[in-house]
Design goal:
Glyas_Fos-R_dOase_dom; 2 helices; 8 strands; 2,3-Dihydroxybiphenyl 1,2-Dioxygenase, domain 1; about 140 residues; 4-stranded mixed sheet; Glyas_Bleomycin-R_OHBP_Dase; alpha/beta; VOC_core; 2 domains
């Protein structure tokens, strides 16, 4: 039996050296909207929402942190979207899959597309500007 009851995903946080650039990417590519963010004073944050309830919190990276700086700085990570199906990524579904993929290509975003053996499930993998892995699946609806 799990220790927690009534669990649901609240938000995902991404640290970055440029919260405005990353916010713009998620707004333009996936349709996130900026929502009210608390003011922490010593660092910048932007909170985004994807209706109805998913939130993404972008947090200005602490320049004094001892943690590795995201996927690009990892020696084991290769910046190739072909590696994302078995790597760390966040996945979204869209109803306009083909035009979405075309938009990524028009924006010069490197992608890797995959169709599952059932022939119905189409996926595209790509990176955000900070090297975080993303997947978008064609929704069945």
């Amino acid at each position: 039996m799990a220790a927690a009851k009534g669990v649901s995903l609240n938000h995902i946080a991404r640290e970055t050296t440029d919260v405005k650039r990353l916010s713009k990417f998620y707004q333009e590519i996936l349709g996130f909207e900026v929502i009210e963010s608390p003011k922490f004073g010593e660092f910048e944050v932007i909170w985004l929402r994807l209706s109805p309830v998913f939130s993404l919190h972008l947090i200005e990276r602490n320049p004094e942190t001892k943690l590795p700086e995201g996927p690009w700085s990892s020696a084991a990570t290769i910046a190739d979207p072909k590696n994302l199906p078995r790597g760390h990524h966040i996945s979204f579904s869209v109803s306009n899959y083909d035009s979405f993929v075309q938009t990524l290509k028009e924006k010069g975003i490197e992608t890797f597309e995959k169709t599952q053996p059932d022939g119905k499930t189409k996926q595209v993998f790509f990176f955000d500007p900070d090297g975080n892995g993303l997947e978008v699946i064609k929704s069945s609806g």
